């Protein structure tokens, strides 16, 4: 349970960084969407995603995560897919913070 919560928090933090930059449309060096979009085409290819330090930690999980994020199955992640991921994680985090009665 503890591992699942920590994993969710890490994914949410990473996703939030990606989505914030995607939403602002900024091309900042060293962080977020722009740091993964190496060829500056406005998408994160599977190769770009898998080259990230987080993906390199566990390539099996990263492959599965990429597949689940790529909703249109086109082999890349666009800014809208990243935004949806952020919304999902924020909703999950909000539900976990709600007091149980």
General description of the model:
There is one protein chain. The protein is mainly alpha-helical and 101 residues long. The chain has a single domain, classed as Orthogonal Bundle (Recoverin, domain 1), CATH 1.10.238. Helix content is 67%, strand content 6%. It has six helices and two strands. A two-stranded antiparallel sheet has the order 1-2. The longest helix is centred in the first third of the chain and has 23 residues. The radius of gyration is 14 Å and the shape is globular. The chain starts with a helix and ends with a helix.
In short:
With 101 residues, the protein is mainly alpha-helical.
Shape designation? globular
- Helix percentage range: 55-70%
Query: For the report, how would you describe the main beta sheet?
Result: 2 strands, antiparallel
By CATH reckoning, the class would read Mainly Alpha
**Oligomerization status of the protein chains:** single chain
| Beta-strand content bin | 5-15%
Would you give the CATH topology?
Recoverin, domain 1
CATH architecture: Orthogonal Bundle
Rg of Cα set = 14 Å
H/E series, N to C? HHEHHHEH
The total of helices stands at 6
**Termini Cα gap:** 21 Å
């Amino acid at each position: 349970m503890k591992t699942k919560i920590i994993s969710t928090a890490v994914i949410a933090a990473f996703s939030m960084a990606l989505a914030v930059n995607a939403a602002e449309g900024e091309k900042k060096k060293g962080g977020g969407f722009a740091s993964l979009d190496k060829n500056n085409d406005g998408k994160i290819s599977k190769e770009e995603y898998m080259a990230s330090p987080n993906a390199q930690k566990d390539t099996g999980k990263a492959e599965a995560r990429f597949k689940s994020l790529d909703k249109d199955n086109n082999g890349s992640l666009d800014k809208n897919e990243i935004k949806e991921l952020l919304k999902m994680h924020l909703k999950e985090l909000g539900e976990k913070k709600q007091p149980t009665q």
